Amino acid sequence: MNAAAPTVAVELRDVRKSFGRTEIIRGANLAVNAGERVAIIGPNGAGKSTLFNLISGRFGPTSGEIRLRGERIDGKAPYEIARRGLARSFQVSNLFTRLSVFENVRCAVLYAMGYRYAFWRFLADLKDANERAEAVIAMIKLDRRRNHLAMNLTYAEQRALEIGITIAGGADVILLDEPTAGMSRSETARFVELIRDVTVGKTLLTVEHDMGVVFGLADKIAVLVYGEVIAFDTPDAVRANARVQEAYLGSVLAQGH
Amino acid sequence: MAATSEHLTRRDWFVWIGFAVVLVVAPLLWRSSFAQTLLSQIGIAIIACLAYNILLGQGGMLSFGHAVYSGLGSFIAIHALNLASKGQLAIPVSLLPLVGGLAGLFFAAVLGYVTTKKSGTTFAMITLGIGELVASMSLMIPEFFGGEGGISGNRVVGRPVLGITFGPQIQIYYLIAVYCFVSTAAMYALTRTPLGRMLNAVRDNPERVEFVGYSTQHVRYLAFMISGFFAGIAGGLGALNFEIVTAEVVGAARSGGYLFFVFLGGAGFFFGPIIGAVLLVIALVLLSELTKAWLLYLGIVFLIMVMYAPGGLASLIMMNLRLAVFGKLNRLWRHYIPLAVAGLIALAGAAAMIEMVYHLQLNEALGPQMGFLGLTLDAKGVAAWTGAALVLALGAGLFEWLRRGFGREWNRIQEEIAAEIARREAAA
Asked: Do A35 and A6 meet the contact criterion of CB atoms below 8 Å apart?
């Protein structure tokens, strides 16, 4: 780590979220430094996906502050947050089903590359956007499926495209919601490599159940239990943490190694 | 796999040149004044249906009120025409459709701002509401909408330019043809721009669009305005073509017609609405002359299409083209022809019964005798009804029997094609 104080990429201050009378996120605090890879773990129903939805703007928090590089983003629309350089993937693949793999990825680069709502330029002429889309497709190893419709891909291919859309715009904060869910062991191993490759130099937050993936990928682990971050530290420190052992299954953590 | 070029291919150019040639040559081959009227209306309908499909097919927006924009375009254009006739507005007649377009754009900008705040069912409901609102205003503001009689005008204004007065129908046809070609090209171009593609993305998955930096509402709003602009051009051309604009051009029946025929033509393909537009004019002009029950027939066709071919005629064409590309189409002709014959037999039986009912309802005074396909049927006679029912049953039964054989062959061919594709991919 550099001598200079690292900048905080994502910060949550006493974030709360209620649905009706049920409080799902109950005062979550977290500060993720730029360039860190953080895995968020916790039992089912702890609010991991909700936390992602709050950070990415799918819902606004009931109270509290969320900051992206120091700037308040809580309550902003998803597209406003995306334009500030935060991208996310979804637990259930969320693709443009009737568009080709190439079109899916290109849709994800257009805004970021400044083409926005242009109706006076042809897509065919946007050399940089097209090259970027091709490069991303190569990165996620879907070049052979370039012209297939997203809905005709296999499950693993759809998961890869999901990641491709997420990283295509060049966001420097990436949220991945259970990227390896539903994959076989060998697919998972390959996928972790892929995630590592495409998020080099970026801030990564990922929700993950597979402890192998967590320990293989994360610099730090945040443990979320009943809507609170009860521990946020290096993997070894978290594993040794008595509170984590007590609140969350020690056995699950032990699986990792 | 090699990257497919997105620039127009040689084949694309041929299609566009062919389209232009058809527009130029059609009235020369088919010279009657009735043909010119028909072709003029088709040209206008093509623009209107393509404009509507920017919403329905490209953007997944189901509008029940798009006649508002073509219709208000018509009214503004005819008022502009009348001002020009009085010498109060210096504008050539050839530019009046653009005035209609700008009017469509203006109203789409105002009304669409509210409409496009929502998507899905809510969007559809708002368009329905605005459609009714404008239709009812047409009764409240006769100064603008002309009341029952509508607003009429005279498209011959000022001195002829290069001998063109726009008086003869053929001259107005060519004006329509030029607008039709340019508008079609422009709307096709839109499908190949960032906005056009994001509109497809909004149709497929609005949620994800928001997470790649786009406001879905803004995408919908822009598309709505563009659609309103082209609808307005169609409206302006309609005003020049008919020289009269009545309140029905903003009405629900017109809006429903756009939806109906764009769906029938095929909203999923760019050229689908063009087929729909041709059918729209044929149904409105020819079928309505042929039988009083034409709306009933259209309803039946619509029902059958929704159930069995939801992609419209364009998708049927594309499916068969795909078979042709793989060289399998000739195996289906021996199914298609008997199917068509059986279908026509069933239709004849059904039509006989429908026409007899209409005859009894509407032509009571003429007695029960009526002509049908060269036969004289007694609409009150048991024989005619039994005969018609038997013909219908025979046709329908035959059709169903043939359809099963066709279905098996169709599935076999699809499997063969899938295997062929897999083989090619493995070889690549």
From this structure: yes
Distance of CA A234 to the CA centre of its chain: 19
pLDDT at A256 (0 to 100): 47
Q: Is A10 exposed, middle or buried (0-12, 13-18, 19+ CB in 10 A)?
A: buried
**CB-based contact B213 A96, cutoff 8 Å:** no
What is the CATH number for A21?
A: 3.40.50.300
Both structure tokens of B330: 């000739």
Q: Is residue A90 part of a domain?
A: no
Asked whether residue A32 falls in the same domain as residue A78, the answer is: yes
B23: phi then psi, degrees, rounded to nearest 5? -60, -40
The C-alpha angle A212, A217, A220, rounded to 5 degrees, equals 105
Q: Which residues pair with residue A86 across a beta bridge? A: A173
B7 vs B203, more confident: B203
Confidence band, pLDDT 50/70/90 cuts, at residue A5: low
Whether the predicted pLDDT of B187 surpasses 90: yes
Tell whether the model's pLDDT for residue A257 goes beyond 60.
Answer: no
Q: How far apart are the first and last CA of chain A?
A: 26
pLDDT(B317) > 80: yes
What pLDDT digit, counting tens, does each position of B343-361 carry? 999 999 999 999 999 888 8
Distance of alpha carbon B171 from alpha carbon B177, whole angstroms: 10
> A109 and A235: one domain?
no
B239-297 pLDDT, tens digit each: 999 999 999 999 999 999 999 999 999 999 999 999 999 999 999 998 988 888 899 99
Q: How far is Cα B377 from Cα B388, in angstroms, rounded to an integer?
A: 10
The C-alpha atoms of residue B130 and residue B136 are separated, in whole angstroms, by: 10
For the structural domain made of B11-318, what CATH number should be given? 1.10.3470
Closest listed residue to residue B209, CA positions, set A109, A75, A107, A132: A107
B272 or A208: which leads in pLDDT: B272
pLDDT at B327 > cutoff 60: yes
What backbone torsions phi and psi does residue B90 show, to the nearest 5 degrees? -90, 95
In a mutational test of the A interface, the residue from B7, B188, B211 whose CB has the highest number of chain A CBs within 10 Å is: B211
Query: Biggest alpha carbon distance in chain B?
Result: 74
- On whether the CB atoms of residues A111 and B216 are closer than 8 A, the answer is no
Same domain, yes or no: A177 and A251: yes
d(CA A226, CA B92): 72
- Rounded to 5 degrees, φ, ψ at A22 are -90, 120
- Chain A interface with B: residues with Cβ < 8 Å: 56-57, 77-79, 82-83, 87-88, 90, 94-99, 103, 106-108, 110-112, 115-124, 126, 134, 143-144, 146-147, 165, 168-169
Inter-chain contact B194–A143, Cβ cutoff 8 Å?
Answer: no
Q: How confident is the model at residue B374 (pLDDT cuts 50, 70, 90)?
A: confident
B134-166 pLDDT tens trace:
999 998 999 999 988 999 999 998 778 888 889
Domain boundaries, chain B: 11-318, 326-427
**CB B316, CB B305: distance < 8 Å:** no
In this structure, which long-range contacts are made by residues A185-191, counting pairs with CB atoms below 8 Å and at least 24 apart in sequence? A187/A156, A188/A212, A188/A213, A191/A156, A191/A159, A191/A160
Q: Which domain holds residue A126?
A: 95-169
Number of domains in chain A: 2
